[in-house]
Amino acid sequence: MQALHAERTTVTPEIRFLPAENRLLVAGECYPENPLPFFNPILATLKHYFELHKPPHFEARMQLQYINSASTMGLRSLFSLFNEAGERGTDIRVLWAYDAEDDAIEELGTDLVEDFHNVLLERQPYNA
Amino acid sequence: MNPPEFERFQGNAQDRGVLFYYAGAFSPPVIAAAADSLKTRLATEDASGPAKRKLFSTFVEMAQNILHYAADTPAADGSPPAPHGAIAVGREDDPGSTGHYWIVCRNPVDQAYVERLACKLDAVRAMSLEQIKQSYREQLRNAEHARTDTISRGAGLGLLTIARDACAPLEYSFTPTTDPSGRTTLFYVKACI
User: Fold this and answer.
1) The CATH number of the domain where B64 resides is what?
2) Chain A environment of B140 (Cβ under 8 Å)
3) What ipTM, to 2 d.p.?
4) Domain range spanning residue B146?
5) Model confidence over A62-107: pLDDT tens digits?
6) B174/chain A closest Cα distance in angstroms
7) Considering only CA atoms, which of A114, A74, A69, A107 is closest in space to residue B152?
8) Which residues of B touch A77 (CB under 8 A)?
9) How many domains does chain B have?
10) Which fold has domain A4-126?
11) Does the pLDDT at position B105 exceed 70?
12) Chain A neighbors of B31, CB-CB under 8 A
């Protein structure tokens, strides 16, 4: 399985998908005007990975400083994939890091896992 | 624009507390560049971290709304028509205001969208912060909505995001344009932060 790496841009975060370690890292700001070209390759790669490898565990570390409303839909799709993998037996952990002063990102983490009972969200506030 | 005219222009902007203003064509690179310069401008402002984030977020949502919903304006140089609008951010000097900053945008919209936009704005204006957050959660879950609602491609999440960060109900108005065809109306929105 091919690793996936996208460098951070002004409007998209850094992405590192490390299938050998069953890990995904997302860090930065996310506000592309059209989120589909950014999210679709990640969603397709992860869907394939979960279906093919059925990993016993998976960890996603997400540290977003800002995300626009259009991209929250892309994140919700990502969490939906996590939840489906969880239903098939993968132990899914999301480390949700956020600036302790930033209520919007903190609440987004909670909103994203709503109804997704197979995703364990660990909140990690930090002081910027 | 001669020196006295420019002085008046600058004086007006200063009196109104303007920190940032852009008017013209909206495109993804223009928005990215504008958002980046606003961020740099806000870094020197003596405001809290959350206030700066709310201003930045509201700016991006408003600018991307203009890009998606503004009626295309024909370009003078013959290039393809593009969405046009104006957006400004400034400090609130009115002691009667609840906010410390204002952010306003105005763009032409198709006449056919007016009623729909007014309904959405009125609904959001009547909501409490808790209701805004609840509605946001519902729309985030309801991703299907985005594919069935062709006018509101963002499923209204953008408007709810702007309303969530504002310290008072959003203000809006529609005013006639000079467009002789009467096809468009100018749509104005103001958020206080």
Assistant:
1) 3.30.565.10
2) 72-73, 76, 111-112, 114
3) 0.92
4) 3-192
5) 999 999 999 999 999 999 999 999 999 999 999 999 999 999 999 9
6) 24
7) A69
8) 143
9) 1
10) Transcription Regulator spoIIAA (3.30.750)
11) yes
12) 33
